[in-house]
Amino acid sequence: MEQKLSRREASDSVSHLGWRYLLGTLRTSVPVGSLARAVEVAASAVAVCGDDADRHLRVDLRPDRVVLTLQSLDLAGLTARDVDLAHRISAAMHEGGLRAEPEIGTGAPRSVQILEIAIDALDIAAIRPFWKAVLGYADEAGADGPEDPVIDPVGQGPVIWFQQMDQPRSQRNRIHFDICVPHDEASLRIEAALAAGGRLLSASRAPAFWVLADIEGNEACVTTWQGRDGS
């Protein structure tokens, strides 16, 4: 139960339940009609997870939806236990007349997603401590090296990671956004960005990521789990 799953293993195990694999997590949304109902949904999810809730489940409550995230926090990855919990939660939602879904093509404001911010740097080890300190961030479990990303320890802010530069590029923005979306949402998000005046700079690493830019050249990457480990 505690062995890490591959991206494909995790995705294939839960996609039919309305969960999506995003950056080492499983995530779904449960539409609700009130904050009181959202609290009930959260309580139900915690109850079915039992003793595993504290180390695997994170919950974001809003009046119109509950966003549920699963991850084996001690490993910063996914295991069979997370998949089992996703099955349990989805069954509980179904029994309660609700649905767990990634909110793709439903008219929702957007799909489930995770935002990252990437900082270009010549010397990652030199700047990483600054960003860790100024943001009040921490190391992710098992990723405390001098060039590893840093994370919000309470899970509210985006992950900050560092991209190696080979030479100074003052003419180019040195911070860009990574928007991790469900693999079946990526094409829709890219089409919307292009229709809004954006440009596709590169698809050479797709479906891992596509590089887009606004009309002034500011960049953003739409990313998915696919194409990262040969699967």
From TrEMBL:
Residue ranges occupied by any Glyoxalase-like domain in the UniProt entry: 117-223
Gene3D superfamilies xref list: 2,3-Dihydroxybiphenyl 1,2-Dioxygenase, domain 1, Transcriptional coactivator/pterin dehydratase
EC number per UniProt: 4.2.1.96
Record keyword Oxidoreductase present: no
Record has Lyase as a keyword: yes
Domain of life the protein comes from: Bacteria
Keywords: Lyase
Catalytic activity entry: (4aS,6R)-4a-hydroxy-L-erythro-5,6,7,8-tetrahydrobiopterin = (6R)-L-erythro-6,7-dihydrobiopterin + H2O
Family that this chain belongs to: Belongs to the pterin-4-alpha-carbinolamine dehydratase family.
The protein's name: Putative pterin-4-alpha-carbinolamine dehydratase
Lineage: Bacteria, Bacillati, Actinomycetota, Actinomycetes, Streptosporangiales
